[in-house]
Amino acid sequence: MSMTSAPFDFAVENYPLAPVSLYNVGGPADLALMPTNLDEVEAAYRWLSEQDVPRIVLGGGSNVLISDAGFRGIVLFTTELVEIRALGDDRFEVEGGAILDDMLQGTILKHNYAGAGGLTGIPGTVGGAIFMNAGTVNGSICELMESVKITTESGTEEIEIDSSMYSYRGQTFCPPSGLIVSGTFAFSRSDDDQRAIYDKYIARRKETQPQGHSCGSVFKNPEGHHSGQLIESCGLKGTRIGGACISDVHANFIVNDQGASSADIL
Description:
Blueprint: E1 11-16, E2 28-33, H1 38-48, E3 55-58, E4 71-77, E5 84-88, E6 91-95, H2 100-111, H3 116-119, H4 126-131, E7 135-136, E8 139-140, E9 145-152, E10 155-160, E11 166-167, E12 170-171, E13 179-186, H5 194-208, H6 227-233, E14 240-241, E15 244-246, E16 254-256, H7 262-265
Parallel strand pairs: 2-4, 3-4
Antiparallel strand pairs: 1-2, 5-6, 6-13, 7-8, 9-10, 9-13, 11-12, 14-15, 15-16
C-alpha cells in the first residue's frame, strides 16, 4: 500500500483520533483531510481515489471505536462543513459537519419546528446522524429531510429522499464510502412548545443515562426487545474489563471510566 504526498493545506499528518471520539480512545491516523467547502471535498475525493491505502469518512466520532493502533490510512473529516443556510419557506440546508444540537437549538427550537422529540440528546454531527438515521422512539432525522447532497469517488449528487430510502438506524442513499455534504430539511411549525419537549428529554437522559466517555447505546434494539434490558437480564451490569465497564445505570452503555484502552472496550 502506498500514498503520495497530499497537495492540500487542509491535510494533517499523524493526526490524533482519541480526542475526536466520544470513547476518548485510539491511536492516530496517518493522514487527516479537513475540507471546508464542496470544492475541497471534491478535490479530496479525487485525490483519495488514487491512493492505495485504507480510507474512512468521520464526523464527530460519536459511535466509532478507534483502534489503539490508530488508522493506517486517510481519515476524511466533515467537521469543517458547518454552515446552516436558510432557504425560505421553513427549508434549511445544513452541512454535514454541523453539530446536531446546534441545528436543534438554532433552527428547530428557535422557530418552534416539530422534531425536537426525535433528536434531543443525540451527540455528533448532522451528517453522521443522517448516515445512520439517528433518532429516538419519537422520530428520526430522515423523516424531516427533503434531499441529501453526497460526494463519492464518482462526484457529487443531490438525492431526493422518500420514506422507502431509510429505516430504523439505517438508510440506502449513501454508501459506506460516501461523504454527506449537506441535507436539506423541510420543517413544519409546531403547536406544541418544542423547548419544553427538549428540556423534558434532556432531563430524562440525565436521570437514566450514565455520564463519562461512551458512544451512547452500543447495540440496536432487536425487534420487540430492548438491548439494555436483555444485557441486564444476563446479569452483566457493572461487568468490567480494564478501564471499561458495562454501566450500572444503563446496561446498553459501555463506559470508559478508568482510562480504558480500545481493546478493553472491544
